[in-house]
Amino acid sequence: MSKVEVVMPQLGESLTEGTIVKWHKKPGDKVRKDETLLEISTDKVDSEIPSPASGVVTKLLFPEQKTVAVRTVIAEIDTDETAAASAASAPAKPTAVETAPPKVEQKSPVQEVRPVATPQPSLQAMPASGRFYSPLVLNITREEGISMMELEQIPGTGEGGRVSKKDILAYVDAKKKGIALPQRAAAPAAAPAAQPAAGPSAPRIESTLKHVESGDLVKKYPAPQYEILQMSNLIQKMGEHMVRSKQTSPHVYEIHECDMTKVDIVRRRNQDGFEKREGFKLTYMPFICDAVVQALKQFPLVNCQIDGDKIIVKKFVNLGIAVATENGLIVPVIKNADEKNFTGLARAVNDLATRARMKKLALPDIEGGSFTITNYGGFGAMMGTPIINQPQVAIIGIGSIEKRAVVINDAIAIRSIAYFTLSFDHRIVDGALGGSFLSAVIKKLENVDENLLV
Known about the structure:
The chain is 27% helix and 24% strand. The protein is built from 10 helices and 22 strands. By secondary structure, the protein is of the alpha+beta class.
């Protein structure tokens, strides 16, 4: 028997520990190489960790919600040829527990294998619906030539309706045999008051939190009148970061109206060809990113940070894009956004959003931002006042784009309007600079180049 020790990975040089959020396998379970073994959370990012080898899980050395130092052995896998071959060919039930006890360990050389990053999915991996698919399911999908449209219609038997390995293999087998395939039930429409018809559904953060069932608070807030949930590591750190930002920067807000009609026309005119060429939908966000980048070049003081009594002006634009996930808000960063053309920005936005929702971001993906965009309009909010992402000095918030009656040349017209909010640190950005910057962003959007995508 050959034994592989799985260690807590170090996802970044500054990280010293990680929290085990969930084990996807139990002792006695078979596992394939690169199949998700567990989920971990750090104070920077949540990640799914793949198995470093095929075999049978023999030991889980720490329970869920336990914080463990990096490079600590957290699990062991028996990788003898029989177990590995059996795991590699096993058709599904990825979490079924074997009835027989794990094999007794024999003395043999111990091999330490650290989890390695799984190949990143293509830019088509995350559908517009935001439905999650594991790397294993996506790999089978690509190998079998199944389109994303087909994958979206497969009913899932996994947690939260996710498509498991068993589901995708059953679909492939039925398709090859010409058997009529069941279709996934359509999701119920959201209530108009809570969600605009064209917007995405809000991530169900509460469904990922653990229930607290013991302790003094349970007595203070008894069931069924109350339900107590434990904040995830990511939510706790995000909260601490937001409180620190409000204590550090005197926040000032400016709200401007932006006519997005021309952007909407250009987007609609090019969306079919763009999706066919790039493999993902053309959204408003790349247009906004391009306008923000150009305005930051024009007003570099908005792209700086404060260190004591010194102003550090950055000669690059690392653009953060806030992404809402089921585990909380995270801000992946487009590095050197000022060096990318429109299509490059669109690809970067799609890639980072996809990997954020699939928990495939690495630490460098969320560090080093110089300016942030947050789009709360996607969830129906008309306007908001976002908190600055320290140590940056400004953040722009985008409200929902809706058709409104406006006055143009003394006549009433119907236009696609959105409210843009700039939150800025008044220690360095005053009202004149903030207003000029925001006006420049809006001017570029209202006069968007129709040949931008050519």
